[in-house]
Amino acid sequence: MPVYRVSNLPDNADKFVFDTNILIFLHGLLHRPSQEMREYTKIANAIICDNSQVLIDLIALEEFINRYIHESLAQIFQTAPRDFKFNKKEHRKTKEYLDVLSDLN
Question: CB–CB of 25/40 below 8 Å?
Fold first, then answer.
């Protein structure tokens, strides 16, 4: 499967797959605007405008969800993501966890 950038987007492709890192970029979770992020946003916008399909691999989706929850809770609890220890049993019933799930939904 080819890897696309804005400069080499095909005119007639109708199906695309994003990996976990790109999904994280597109959802703004990293909060670090970059040229790469802007490129992926342009690609995503082109896909939407062309009514193309985005296929999601279940493993990539699971990785995205887990990373989204981890990074969001780390930000809420003002802890560096590398230092934050997510414990599902401990955090599952907290308002913060439920808010993140609501945002994710």
Answer: yes
